[in-house]
Amino acid sequence: MSGQRVQSSLKRVLDVMASISLLILLAVPLGLAMAAIKLEGGGAALFRQQRVGLHGRTFRIWKLRTMTVTRIDPQVPDRLAHDDPRITHVGRVLRSLGIDELPQLLNVLSGEMSLVGPRPTLAYQVAAYDDLQRRRLEVKPGITSMAVVSGRNALPWVHRIELDIWYIDHWSLGLDVRILLRTLWCLLIARTGLYGDDGSNDSFVEEPKQDLEADVP
What we know:
globular
């Protein structure tokens, strides 16, 4: 077995062991977050949204709901701003700490995602990829990524994808560990890059009008 295949196998072992451990350790904080979401506005505490993963296959990610169940105004631009009225008070806190992404540990356990890899994007974004950008679908998407620890949403999508492709070309288990450690710094200490320099997120291309969040069916 080649060294790369051994590292890939170890990556999966790390994903499974870390996900199980974190879900156990974070069970109480996640439960409290879900209770706070329910208390603030009712509706589902969790929601699922279809994303594109490895080799272009679609799957549904788990997230804590941080926005109102349906958009307030169907004509609101799809660029999400820091002061967007769709974001709840509890949701604002969860987003700032990255806690809303933690339920994706379930996606990691199921093998749809990894702890580290390009962030899973929406189908409308993938449809606009050129051949080079489609390379980010060569690996499983991740909860965190090289782009997340290099500037997050403060970076334009084109730059984020370039970083994802760099990660794919230079991947090693050691690189994953470094990204995970840098993620803790970015989320818990620096807490930067949640939104772009103009206070909103770059949506890559014009997104079709649709509900951004929905209750779990």
